[in-house]
Design brief:
Pathway: Cofactor biosynthesis; coenzyme A biosynthesis; CoA from (R)-pantothenate: step 2/5; Cofactor biosynthesis; coenzyme A biosynthesis; CoA from (R)-pantothenate: step 3/5. Residues 10-222 form the DNA/pantothenate metabolism flavoprotein C-terminal domain. It comes from Kitasatospora acidiphila. The chain contains five helices and twelve strands. With 225 residues, the protein is of the alpha/beta class. The longest helix is centred in the C-terminal third of the chain and has 15 residues, at 209-223. Strand 2 and strand 3 form a beta hairpin. Bound molecules: cytidine-5'-triphosphate (CTP) and calcium ion. Cytidine-5'-triphosphate binds at residues 78, 97, 99, 101, 103, 130, 132-134, 150-153, 165.
Length: 225
């Protein structure tokens, strides 16, 4: 994809992107986490900035350089991400939840390191649900015309699960990709279908995450008032 100079179709727009994966602490040295590298969210932020947007990037545990001209806000846990997202969303024309948010967190945080006890098996780890940030942001929009975009990684029945998830979350677009067997996580390429609440279905062929990012912004721009 060749991008010409002056294709600033997001100029004057403020976009909020979340990237990476949350970490839910068990104790001061351990967490429950996931394999998200943050590459897709960072590619989305960089592409939006290149297209003229003001970009706020909520970055959860990503070891990548911040894209030029992007306002990066680091977050660690799902609760921190939720707080930062709820605070920033009312100012955003577009919200893209590319972060892998932990569905559960340990019910108890041990303030001291959990130690082995001689001759004893470990206690099970009790978990509680984290809030669904995407569903909340979709439902609680205050900014007129705001668009909300979600992601879904599915291992099977990708389109059926994607359609159901789009409806459940109440977002405008859902970017669905198939994961498993080394697909998507930590790789530099991605393949996806962008589902629209309006019934649209836009397949994006396998390619760099930068190309998927631009395909997503194309769909967003087409829907912005
Ligand atoms: N998401 C979120 N808050 C959560 C979980 C997920 O905002 N607590 C967002 C993700 O950022 C993503 C979308 O919701 O944009 C879909 O995430 P996914 O894990 O596929 O959806 P879930 O509803 O958690 O469904 P599943 O049980 O398949 O994990
Ligand atoms: Ca989930």
């Amino acid at each position: 994809l060749v991008r010409g100079v002056g294709e600033a179709d997001l100029a004057g727009r403020h976009v909020l992107v979340s990237a990476g994966g949350t970490r839910e602490p068990l104790d001061p040295v351990r967490f429950l986490g996931n394999r998200s590298s943050g590459k897709q969210g960072y590619a989305l932020a960089a592409a939006a900035a290149a297209r003229g947007a003001r970009v706020t990037l909520l970055s959860a545990n990503v070891s990548l350089p911040g894209p030029a001209g992007v306002d990066v806000i680091p977050v660690a846990t799902a609760l921190e991400l939720r707080e930062a997202a709820v605070k920033a969303a009312p100012e955003a024309d577009v919200v893209v939840m590319a972060a892998a948010v932990a569905d559960f967190r340990p019910a108890v945080y041990a303030t001291g390191k959990i130690k082995k006890v001689e001759g004893e098996e470990p206690a099970p780890v009790a978990l509680v649900r984290n809030p669904d940030i995407l569903a909340e942001l979709s439902a609680d929009r205050t900014r007129p015309g705001q668009l909300v975009v979600g992601f879904a990684a599915e291992t099977d029945q990708v389109l059926a699960h994607g359609r159901a998830k789009l409806a459940r979350k109440g977002c405008d677009l859902l970017v669905v990709n198939e994961v498993g067997d080394g697909k998507a996580f930590g790789t530099d390429t991605n393949e996806a279908v962008i589902l629209g609440a309006d019934g649209s279905e836009t397949p994006v062929p396998p390619g760099p995450k930068e190309e998927l990012a631009d395909a997503i912004w194309d769909q967003v721009v087409a829907r912005l008032g």
